[in-house]
Design brief:
Layout (H helix, E strand, L loop, with lengths): L14 H8 L3 H8 L7 H14 L1 E3 L5 E3 L5 E6 L5 H14 L5 E6 L4 H11 L6 E4 L6 H9 L4 E4 L11 E4 L1 H14 L5 E4 L6 H16 L9 E2 L5 H12 L7 E4 L2 H13 L9 E6 L12 E4 L2 H16 L8 E4 L2 E3 L10
Parallel strand pairs: 3-4, 3-5, 5-6, 6-7, 7-13, 8-9, 8-10, 10-11, 11-12
Antiparallel strand pairs: 1-2, 12-14
Length: 346
C-alpha cells in the first residue's frame, strides 16, 4: 500500500474530459493553462472553474499535477559513472524544472537485488511516479507497479521490456545496420562487432542490424567476428585483443558503445595499430567523450537527453491521468562521421 497523505484523494479528470465538460477544444484548455491570449473572458472563467473543481493545480510550469500530489518523481538508474545515465538525467531534469516536482535519484549498481529492492519500496512510498533505467528484465515487478496504478516509464537501454509498459528507447537495429553499412561503403568486408550482455535487448538489436547489413551486401557472417561482452572499456580491450589474435583479424570494429570503443582504442594502441589507417572503429551512443578522443570517434548517436525529456513528458501525462498517444516511443539513431574510419586500401 502507498503511504497516505493528509490531503483528500481526487480522481482527476483528464484534459480531454475537462474539454468536453467545458464545451471547448483541448488547445483552448492549453491556452487557459498557459495564460495565453485568444480565449474569451467568459470561456476562460468557465474553464478555470472546471479545472479547479476537477482537482488540478498548476505544477509551476507547463504541466499539471493532481491535487494530493507528493511532489516527488523517482529516477532509477544503474549508476552515474557513465555519460549514458548522466545525459538522460539531464534531459529529465530539464523538463522537471518546469514543474513543481522534485527529483529523487536512486542507483542500482546494475544488480537485480537492488532493482527489486527499489521496486518493492516504491509500492510503499508516496512517489507520484518513476522513470526507470533497469539493467535486468523485471516484467513481473513492473506489472505489479502497473496493477497498483503507480505511473512509470521505462527507458529501455538494457532490459527486455514488454510493449505494454510505457517506454522510451532508440532504434538500435537501425543504428547497428547504419554503422555496418557505412563500413561496407568504405570497402571493409572483415567487420567485427562487440556487443553487450547477450540478454540485453539493445545489444541483440544492434547485432541483428549488423547481421542484416552484411546479409544484404552478400558478405559472409563469421561467428568469430561477433564478440560478446559488456558496454564498458574493459570488454572492448579484451575482445579487441582476441580479434587481433585471429588468423585474419578484422579491418574494422563496430563497438556496442562509445565506452567500449575506448577499450578498442586502447588495445589497438597497445599493439601499435593505427586508427583508422589499419583498423577503423565505430561506436554507439555519441557521448561527449566521442568528440574529444584522438582520433575523434565515428559513432551512432542515440538522443540520450531527448530520451529523458520524452520519458518525463510521458510520465507527467500519466500522473495527470491523461492517455498516452503511444505506449512505446523509439527515437531515431543517426550516424555521426568523424575521424576513426577510413577507406580500406586496395
Amino acid at each position: 500500500m502507498r503511504r497516505k497523505t493528509n490531503q483528500p484523494n481526487f480522481k482527476a479528470l483528464t484534459l480531454a474530459e475537462i474539454a468536453v465538460r467545458a464545451g471547448v477544444s483541448i488547445p483552448t484548455i492549453s491556452r487557459v493553462l498557459h495564460h495565453r491570449p485568444g480565449v474569451a473572458s467568459e470561456t476562460r472563467e468557465r474553464v478555470e472553474l472546471i479545472l479547479k473543481e476537477s482537482g488540478f493545480v498548476s505544477g509551476g510550469g507547463m504541466e499539471l499535477l493532481p491535487r494530493g500530489s507528493s511532489g516527488i518523481v523517482d529516477i532509477v538508474v544503474p549508476g552515474l559513472d557513465t555519460s549514458y545515465s548522466v545525459e538522460i538525467v539531464r534531459g529529465i531534469s530539464e523538463v522537471l524544472e518546469r514543474t513543481g516536482l522534485r527529483l529523487a535519484l536512486s542507483t542500482t549498481g546494475n544488480t537485480v537485488q537492488r532493482e527489486q529492492q527499489w521496486l518493492g519500496k516504491a509500492l510503499e512510498s508516496s512517489t507520484d511516479g518513476a522513470i526507470l533505467i533497469l539493467s535486468h528484465e523485471q516484467t513481473c515487478n513492473l506489472a505489479e507497479l502497473q496493477r497498483r496504478k503507480l505511473p512509470f516509464v521505462v527507458i529501455d537501454h538494457e532490459g527486455g521490456i514488454e510493449i505494454d509498459f510505457p517506454s522510451v528507447g532508440a532504434t538500435n537495429w537501425a543504428g547497428g545496420r547504419a554503422a555496418t553499412e557505412y563500413l561496407l561503403s568504405l570497402g571493409h568486408r572483415r567487420i567485427a562487432v562487440i556487443g553487450g550482455d547477450a540478454t540485453f535487448r539493445c545489444s541483440i538489436d544492434r547485432i541483428a542490424g549488423y547481421r542484416a547489413a552484411l546479409e544484404e551486401a552478400g558478405i559472409p557472417i563469421y561467428p568469430e567476428y561477433i564478440r560478446p561482452g559488456a558496454f564498458m572499456p574493459q570488454t572492448g580491450y579484451e575482445q579487441t585483443c582476441a580479434l587481433l589474435d585471429l588468423p585474419e583479424p578484422p579491418t574494422a570494429i563496430f563497438a556496442g558503445s562509445d565506452l567500449q570503443a575506448m577499450g578498442v582504442y586502447s588495445a589497438l594502441r597497445t599493439h601499435g595499430i593505427a586508427i583508422p589507417d589499419t583498423i577503423s572503429v565505430v561506436g554507439f551512443d555519441d557521448i561527449p567523450l566521442a568528440s574529444m578522443v584522438t582520433p575523434t570517434l565515428t559513432t551512432i548517436r542515440q538522443p540520450l537527453m531527448e530520451m529523458g525529456r520524452v520519458a518525463t513528458t510521458m510520465l507527467l501525462r500519466l500522473i495527470a491521468a491523461e492517455p498516452l498517444d503511444h505506449p512505446r516511443v523509439a527515437l531515431a539513431t543517426t550516424l555521426v562521421v568523424r575521424e576513426s574510419c577510413a577507406s580500406l586500401h586496395p
